[in-house]
Design goal:
Number of domains: 2
Order of helices and strands: HEHHEHHEHEHEHHHHHHHH
Helix content: 40-55%
Radius of gyration: 21 Å
CATH architecture of the largest domain: 3-Layer(aba) Sandwich
Length: 351
């Protein structure tokens, strides 16, 4: 989200009860990717763009803000700590926290000015803000850092505008692109960025962090959260909020029963999801993430072309739930369609 809009922006991307990535100074279980990022940043000649990849809640935004604070504090030098840490009490950190640092621009989908609801895409008008931002003269010769959260949500016009910014980068500037699915980005965008892939945390570390951060969770719920969070601490914490765990379990059940869906149970699920605030969008996100994790695991095991029907189902699910969220459709038809997509894929074999 653009810094200039902070007074009007209710931060639709903030999860109630959890710290925003801008407010998070700890990066758990990402030592390898942090080491790569530090080498790129502290060596004096950072790339024009860094592409931070990983599932939702894997720490991409937390790392992006960490990189931004370091550059705004120390420039692209080795004057600061090797882990890119800048203390929360530092003046740079305080300005970033209050969204008042002139050297940082954060672009997200934002809100539709007519409906007041989150936009479904990151529009070209948002990306065009980069031109004026990078055209400014940085105070004291400092860096200008732009975070795109997430690049996956750009429409075609926005992607082309971003490509132009990457092709003609001004001095002492960097683009930090966050992506859940980098394969959806233009190859020309990917080729102009250095890839940083977030690591999946081991189950033991996730369980340990949950025990400290969410001590109220029962052992059974903690185990379920670990299983459903795809190795992402942020996602694990999201699942502990509100109906998060309930919806994630429903998504898991939909996939597990793909070869034999129960119509009455699907109707009941639609009724339950319809009563939950944001339930349909959350179910879609959990379905896509769960399916993506299963496909990736099977691909690593050498399943190859046998996964094509499941990849097609993943694409159909993503589009169906994006459309339903954009048009505020009634949950029943969307959930029935999702079950159909999964059932068709299951004819090739279960995941």
């Amino acid at each position: 989200m653009a810094r200039a809009d902070k007074d009007e922006d209710p931060e639709f991307d903030r999860i109630p009860g959890l710290a925003h990535p801008r407010e998070t100074f700890e990066l758990i279980g990402q030592d390898d990717v942090l080491r790569i990022a530090a080498t790129a940043i502290r060596g004096g000649r950072p790339p024009q763009g860094l592409l931070l990849c990983g599932p939702p809640g894997s720490g991409k935004a937390t790392l992006a803000y960490r990189i931004a604070r370091y550059l705004l504090k120390y420039d692209a030098t080795d004057a600061g700590p090797a882990d890119l840490a800048v203390p929360p009490s530092d003046p740079v950190s305080l300005k970033v926290l209050s969204r008042a640092h002139p050297g940082l621009l954060v672009l997200t989908r934002g809100l539709n000015p007519e409906s007041g609801k989150p936009m479904t895409v990151l529009s070209v008008n948002e990306i065009r803000k980069l031109a004026s931002f990078f055209g400014l003269t940085s105070g004291a010769g400092g860096w200008r850092v732009a975070i795109i959260d997430t690049a996956d949500e750009m429409n075609d016009q926005a992607a082309n505008a971003l490509l132009k910014a990457l092709e003609e980068p001004p001095a002492r500037s960097i683009l930090l692109l966050l992506s859940h699915a980098p394969g959806r980005l233009l190859p020309t965008i990917r080729s102009r960025c250095q890839l940083l892939r977030m690591q999946s945390l081991p189950a033991s570390l996730l369980a340990q962090e949950l025990a400290v951060r969410q001590p109220h969770l029962s052992d059974a719920d903690r185990d379920a959260v670990v299983q459903l969070s795809a190795g992402a601490l942020g996602l694990a914490l999201m699942l502990t909020q509100g109906d998060g765990l309930v919806i994630a379990k429903e998504a898991q059940r939909l996939i597990d029963s793909a070869d034999n869906p129960d119509l009455l149970e699907l109707f009941a699920l639609a009724d339950r999801i319809g009563r939950m605030k944001g339930g349909l969008a959350a179910l879609g996100e959990d379905l896509v993430l769960n399916l993506s994790s299963r496909i990736s695991a099977r691909a690593r095991a050498g399943a190859g072309n046998a996964l094509n029907p499941w990849v097609e189902a993943w694409e159909k699910l993503r589009h169906a739930f994006e459309r339903s969220t954009a048009l505020h459709l009634e949950p029943r038809q969307t959930i029935l369609s999702a079950a159909t997509f999964l059932s068709e894929a299951a004819r090739s074999g279960n995941l």
